[in-house]
Design brief:
Layout: H1 2-26, H2 48-68
């Protein structure tokens, strides 16, 4: 039983060593990936329409918070 356990450990160590070596060689090739998603407009948060909507939402929230506590009977 001890010999089977030793054999299993030896085999798993050999397999791990072989696979890690194969993995390191697999990563050796250089790959040139060009992901160009530039459509000329830039990021959405650099657009003026985004900041106009953010400003309107901020003003609406500010008005709602200031008017909320005003009419107590």
């Amino acid at each position: 039983m001890k010999q089977l356990s030793k054999l299993t450990k030896t085999f798993s160590l050999f397999l791990f060593g072989f696979l890690s070596t194969a993995l390191s060689f697999a990563q050796d090739a250089s790959l040139d990936v060009n992901i160009n998603t530039d459509q000329g407009g830039g990021a959405f948060y650099t657009q003026i329409w985004f900041w106009v909507i953010v400003g309107l939402v901020f003003i609406l929230l500010l008005v709602a918070l200031l008017r909320g506590g005003g009419s107590k009977s």
